[in-house]
């Protein structure tokens, strides 16, 4: 049975209790994520003074989803790039043998 750790994170002034695996890396990652969210919300609050907090949360979520999609698309290209590199090496080797 995995030992769980109870932590509280604060997002936009609200406390959210979480139970996570007792792991320093996991706790640090969760706390960093909460900080990133709060930092972005703060930037939106400075830029758009008369908006509702729900708008800031929605735009922050939207921003993270867009970034995640970009990273997924980039990740899908790496096997293709690696395959092209290998084919280039093979072609270079073949051409050098036939000179």
TrEMBL record:
Which key words are in the record? Cell cycle, Cell division
Decide whether keyword Cell division is in the record. yes
One Pfam family recorded for the sequence: ZapA
Domain of life, source organism: Bacteria
Q: Which InterPro entries match?
A: Cell_div_ZapA-like, Cell_div_ZapA-like_sf
GO BP terms in the entry = cell division
Q: Report the protein name in the record.
A: Cell division protein ZapA
